[in-house]
């Protein structure tokens, strides 16, 4: 079956990336872009962005003759040190995203019924949000929490809120559980989840889902209110750059 020649959402891009990497791995000693094009039945020009991303993230390397082979990142993620390799990989992605969007960036996941900030990248010009209320207790208000909750089923959401009651953190916080569930249900998977001063006054955030298999994760960005006009563009960048994170989790 030929790949579809269209702009792909991160999850679809990862599926195609996996197929491409499997093809490269089968060749072992290297394969040209033209050969990949023939085997995957995709024009070379349409493969180029995917090949560029895989090279940038270290999943592919190029031999002197121009042939592609599997790269160091893929090899490391297959070793016994996978956990550290994955952490290092995600940290590098977050650092690059922080520099690209000019704001603090976070990678979070839902683990054992709790919201967990796995890692983040901030800096003097990209301050992270002040965690004045434990994020585990503020899923109903934060972009990270709401993005993770949207990926749970109704029972999972109810279980979470039975342990972490909705509380008013600012005047904009949703404290009605029915209203919250309605908003979560109506949240399109392709649209960033927003927190417009619901968690903290003076801070705005956006999060995009990063889901592979049973893993419930997200990428998020936060910035001071006076930079709110940049939030949507920053969230769109996170969505476009989510594929490397998804790919790391897929191995």
TrEMBL record:
Cited Gene3D superfamilies: 3.30.450.40, Winged helix-like DNA-binding domain superfamily/Winged helix DNA-binding domain
GO terms classed as biological process: negative regulation of DNA-templated transcription
Keywords: Transcription, Transcription regulation
Molecular functions (GO terms): DNA binding; DNA-binding transcription factor activity
Record domain IclR-ED: where: 73-251
InterPro entries recorded: GAF-like_dom_sf, HTH_MetabolicPath_Reg, Tscrpt_reg_IclR_C, WH-like_DNA-bd_sf, WH_DNA-bd_sf
Name under which the protein is recorded: IclR-family transcriptional regulator
Organism name: Streptantibioticus cattleyicolor (strain ATCC 35852 / DSM 46488 / JCM 4925 / NBRC 14057 / NRRL 8057)
């Amino acid at each position: 079956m030929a790949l579809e020649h269209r702009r792909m959402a991160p999850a679809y891009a990862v599926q195609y990336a996996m197929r491409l990497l499997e093809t490269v791995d089968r060749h072992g000693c290297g394969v040209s872009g033209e050969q990949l094009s023939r085997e995957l039945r995709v024009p070379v020009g349409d493969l180029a962005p995917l090949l560029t991303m895989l090279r940038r993230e270290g999943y592919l390397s190029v031999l002197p003759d121009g042939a592609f082979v599997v790269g160091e990142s893929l090899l490391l993620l297959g070793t016994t040190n996978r956990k550290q390799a994955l952490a290092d990989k995600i940290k590098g992605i977050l650092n690059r995203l922080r520099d690209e969007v000019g704001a603090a960036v976070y990678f979070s996941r839902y683990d054992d019924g709790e919201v967990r900030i796995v890692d983040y990248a901030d800096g003097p010009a990209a301050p992270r949000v002040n965690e004045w209320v434990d994020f585990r207790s503020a899923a109903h208000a934060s972009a990270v929490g709401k993005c993770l909750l949207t990926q749970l089923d109704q029972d999972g959401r109810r279980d979470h809120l039975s342990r972490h009651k909705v509380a008013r953190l600012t005047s904009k916080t949703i404290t009605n559980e029915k209203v919250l569930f309605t908003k979560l249900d109506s949240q399109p998977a392709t649209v960033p989840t927003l927190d417009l001063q619901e968690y903290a006054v003076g801070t705005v955030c956006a999060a995009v889902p990063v889901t592979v298999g049973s893993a419930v994760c997200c990428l998020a960005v936060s910035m001071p209110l006076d930079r709110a006009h940049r939030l949507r563009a920053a969230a769109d960048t996170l969505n476009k750059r989510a594929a490397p994170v998804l790919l790391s989790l897929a191995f």
